[in-house]
Amino acid sequence: MTSPAPAGPAYRRLSVEERRAQLLVAALGLFAHRPPEEVSLDDVAEAAGVSRPLVYRYFPGGKQQLYEAALRSAADRLESCFAEPPEGPPTDRVARVLDRYLRFVDEHDAGFSALMRGGSVAETSRTTAIVDEVRRAAAEQILLHLGASRPGPRLGMMVRTWIAAVEASSLIWIDEDKAPPAAELRDWLVDHLIGLLTVTAASDEETAAAVADLLAEETPDGRIAGLAHRLAPVAGGAAHLL
Question: Which domains, and CATH codes, for the chain?
Answer without folding.
Answer: 16-72 (1.10.357.10), 74-232 (1.10.357.10)
